[in-house]
């Protein structure tokens, strides 16, 4: 099952973030020993704890909502932050990355779901952020793309529509905003909807339950 999933992602050149939240270090090491190096966590505390214990060549992605006062705990080692949803958090990540003389990769989280509860920029808020990025206000941040979560529903056409809206936004930013070649990532799709996400243009999926089942 896992082999087939991995092979399918490889063929489509879709990057896998193995979502390891709530999983033990032993479970993570099983995947690590099978070759997986990119892991995603959604809580800062748990991420810090795991980073201390697990191999240093793991690339840790933070995929959950991030509070400004917690950035400093992960700035020294985190590889990518998927959940950037305000200018304030960008400023803080930039500041803390500079202290460590690092450049941290980030994705801008876009609110594509119907549900109110999910975080992220609205498409019309994104211009202001792109302008600030363009003015080089954040030298210690590399903006690598967009992240989105679809509505939790059985309505396939709804989910598809939401993923497509992120892909369209990505294309329009790529064409109109003068971002460099690092702007590549469409992070969308989880265990339940990754196939749809890939069909609608995802090139990075965040999968947990399916992998660790
Ligand atoms: C938990 C989580 C995932 C993975 O969800 P699964 O359904 O277990 O694959 C993906 N993205 C985010 C932001 C998550 O919090």
CATH structural architecture: Alpha-Beta Barrel
- The CATH H-level superfamily is Alanine racemase
CATH topology: TIM Barrel
- Summarize the main sheet: 8 strands, parallel
Our estimate of the beta-strand percent is 15-25%
Name the poorly predicted regions: none
Looking across the biggest beta sheet, what order are the strands in? 7-6-5-4-3-2-1-8
Number of strands: 8
Radius of gyration, CA atoms, in whole angstroms: 17 Å
Structure in a nutshell:
The protein is an alpha/beta fold and 213 residues long. 40% of the residues lie in helices and 19% in strands.
Description:
The chain has an eight-stranded parallel sheet. It has helices at 2-11, 25-33, 44-53, 71-74, 87-99, 126-134, 156-176, 194-199, 209-212; strands at 15-19, 38-41, 59-62, 80-84, 104-110, 141-148, 185-187, 204-207. By secondary structure, it is an alpha/beta fold. Helix 6 links the parallel strand 5 (104-110) and strand 6 (141-148). The chain binds pyridoxal-5'-phosphate (PLP). Pyridoxal-5'-phosphate binds at residues 19, 21, 42, 63-64, 190-192, 206-210. Pyridoxal-5'-phosphate is lined by residues 19, 21, 42, 63-64, 190-192, 206-210.
């Amino acid at each position: 099952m896992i082999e087939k999933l991995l092979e399918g992602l490889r063929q489509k050149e879709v990057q896998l973030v193995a979502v390891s939240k709530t999983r033990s270090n032993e479970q993570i090491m099983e995947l690590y020993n099978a070759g997986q190096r990119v892991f995603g966590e959604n809580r800062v505390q748990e991420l810090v704890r795991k980073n201390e214990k697990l191999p240093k060549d793991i690339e840790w992605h933070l995929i959950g909502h991030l509070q400004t006062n917690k950035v400093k705990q992960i700035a020294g080692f985190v590889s990518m932050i998927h959940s950037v949803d305000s200018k304030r958090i960008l400023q803080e990540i930039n500041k803390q990355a500079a202290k460590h003389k690092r450049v941290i990769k980030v994705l801008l989280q876009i609110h594509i779901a119907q549900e109110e509860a999910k975080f992220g920029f609205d498409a019309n808020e994104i211009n202001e952020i792109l302008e600030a990025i363009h003015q080089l206000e954040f030298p210690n941040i590399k903006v690598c793309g967009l992240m989105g979560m679809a509505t939790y529903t059985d309505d396939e056409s709804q989910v598809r529509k939401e993923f497509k809206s992120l892909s369209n936004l990505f294309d329009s930013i790529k064409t109109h905003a003068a971002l460099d070649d690092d702007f590549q990532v469409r992070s969308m799709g989880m265990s339940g909807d990754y196939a749809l996400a890939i069909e609608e243009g995802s090139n990075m999926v965040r999968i947990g339950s399916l992998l660790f089942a």
